[in-house]
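FORM 7B: Structural annotation worksheet

SECTION A. Query
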Amino acid sequence: MADTSPPAKGIVIQPRLLLIGGSVSLFGILIAAAFLWMVPSGASRETKAACRGLKADLPVNGALCPGGQPCALPVRAPDFTAVDHQGKPVKLSDFRGKVVLLNFWASWCGVCKTEKPALGAMAEEMASDDFVVLALASDHNWTDVLGALIEGLAPSFRLPEKLDLGAALKAYSEALPRGIPFKVLLDPPSGDGTIGAITAAWGIKAVPESALIDRDGTIRAYFVNKRDWESPVAKTCLRSVIDE
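SECTION B. Predicted structure
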């Protein structure tokens, strides 16, 4: 008797389709691997391009470089200890794990005061647990520092003619009742000098200058003279290091 049952169905594997599918999968894996390899390079290029737009690719002075000769970035940021407004010692290395924009300035520096509004606006906008702005003042006392902060950040406020520490503190609380969005540290000069001891140890002879330091304590960008810290290129430069 003939078998009239329908033929058994099964999975038919076509070698040609299997070969094509395997090739497509392999191509996808190669593309993914290439992308992962390129991401760090792309991020590095973004950092360099954005910071180069701020003219931050110049050789840094020899005081920051091995051998004492001007060199290219990146270089290690020398640690230091300065004091805050409460007289508390603060180390640069205390901020390890954060990206730091270190701004060297002084109360007697007019350009420094004109830079402060943009620095303050940027620091407030970009405030986070990953980023801090430190302003290291080459000044002998806090009276001069407070007066300069008022002049820079609240220019319409009228300072008293005779300014001592008490009057400066009172004026500061009135002119800037919300405080300021960056940390200020004091770097007193030696004797009758105008450049603070820490600032001078970094090889700086005139202010303002700024260093962008990554989480590991390495200087990634360096800026001589003031910058418009509110500009899109400045924020891109900063974020490119923060987001790494």
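SECTION C. Observations
The CA atoms of residues 126 and 178 lie 17 Å apart. Strands lie at 75-76, 81-83, 89-91, 99-105, 131-137, 183-186, 209-213, 218-224.

SECTION D. Sign-off
Analyst initials: ____
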